[in-house]
Amino acid sequence: MSEGFSYSVSFRDFGDEAYAKKVSESVNETVKSFGGSLPIHRLDGITFAVDYAVALQDLDRGLGVGRIIDPSAGTNPNGVAMPLAVRRDDGIKTHIVLRGYLAEQLISDDESLCEEAISIVFYCLGTAAFNALLEGKFPGTLLSPHADPYDGWLYRFNDTLLATYFSTRLIAPSKETVEFYSEQALLQLDQMVSVTTDAHAQYQMNGDHERLFDCCATHVSGFMTAMARYLAAHASIVGPHRPGGSLDQTLSQLELLKWSTLFQEDLAAFNSRLDDWTNLDDIHFLNRHFERLLFEVGVLPDQLNDGSLYIHISGELRLASRQ
After folding, report:
1. What is the bridge-based pairing of β-strands 299-303 and 8-12?
2. 301, 308 in Cβ contact below 8 A?
3. What is the domain partition of the chain in residue ranges?
4. What CA–CA distances, in Å, run from 285 to 91, 151, 154, 242, 290?
5. Element of type H or E holding 46
6. Residue 271: which H helix or E strand, with range?
7. In this predicted model, what pLDDT tens digit does every residue of 277-288 receive, in sequence order?
8. Residues 307-314: contacts with CB within 8 Å, 24+ apart?
9. pLDDT of amino acid 177
């Protein structure tokens, strides 16, 4: 329970009543300290789970919401926490699932462990605030099909990216955290190039273009999210990004440095206009960045004149050829 609204705190397969009460009190204090002027009143609940993957899949997300969840993804790059949009009788809310050990850290006497857990909860609450803002401006759209099938098809691969950027900008990270996010973005970039190159080789044998597209789209999305997290953290502690370091050297080598600058500018501009946001289609700027990177890894989505969705496959792997 917090001021003006209530939410559940639950534990899967661990903790007695006294332990649950102690952790719940710590959670409530964390939610209160985060709240302030941010709209977190649509927080549905927080679940701690030892078996994190099962808890994610078992979460009741409401009628008509049945998407498989990757437990390695999430607001936190280590895959230990995930805020999920859920449909309830009173609208769209956000439910946070956390790995069980974070409950112990929240009540730990070790200040560094406690601060780490609070930081992770804060990131998730940032997503809850973004989702509440979206629900307030465009009721019911968060879990509804897009008006344009093509834009909706593409956007589903990056539908949490803007919330990740928003929540990361809210928290002032340490320089070490910024460097960690830079390393994670570089790792995702390397994986995007290598995995999509291998996927094209497999496509030559199996001819499965949908499997190729899903592989490319998933890894491009992973890289975009990692970049968004890094750019947000960098902006919140340092300011606008300036070229330098291993990540920028690799981006330059792959001829993606100018793209990353434009991506940074578009994300920052969108985030700065949230109070005046009136057109839901504004989010589709992400699709243009997504298409650009898909082209670089040899696939290009398209919509035919009859409205059907189509995937063009190119043998030209532009990023791989620049390594």
Report:
1. unpaired
2. no
3. 8-144, 152-321
4. 26, 10, 11, 22, 9
5. strand 43-49
6. helix 257-272
7. 999 999 999 999
8. 307/149, 309/149, 309/150, 309/153, 311/209, 311/210, 311/212, 311/213, 313/203, 313/209, 313/212
9. 85
Using CA atoms, how far apart are residues 285 and 165, in angstroms rounded to an integer? Answer: 14
Show the low-confidence residues of the chain (pLDDT under 70).
1-4, 37, 63-78, 172, 238-244
Return the residue matching tokens 């939610």.
31
Give the other-Cβ count within 10 Å of 312's Cβ: 13
Residues contacting residue 31 through CB under 8 Å, at least 6 positions apart: 2, 7, 40, 43, 121, 125
- Tokens 């007695």 belong to which residue? 16
How many CA atoms within 13 Å lie on the side-chain side of 145? 6
Would you give the DSSP letter of residue 85?
Answer: E
| The pairing of beta strand 91-99 with beta strand 8-12 | unpaired
Backbone φ/ψ region at 236: left (φ over 0), alpha (ψ -120 to 50), beta: alpha
> Which tokens hold the place of 260?
């990353």
pLDDT in tens, 198-209: 999 999 999 898
Structure tokens at 117: 């857990």
20 sits in which H/E element: helix 17-35
- 102, 130, 87: which is closest to 30 by C-alpha? 102
Q: What does the alpha-carbon distance between residue 171 and residue 173 come to, in Å, rounded to a whole number?
A: 6
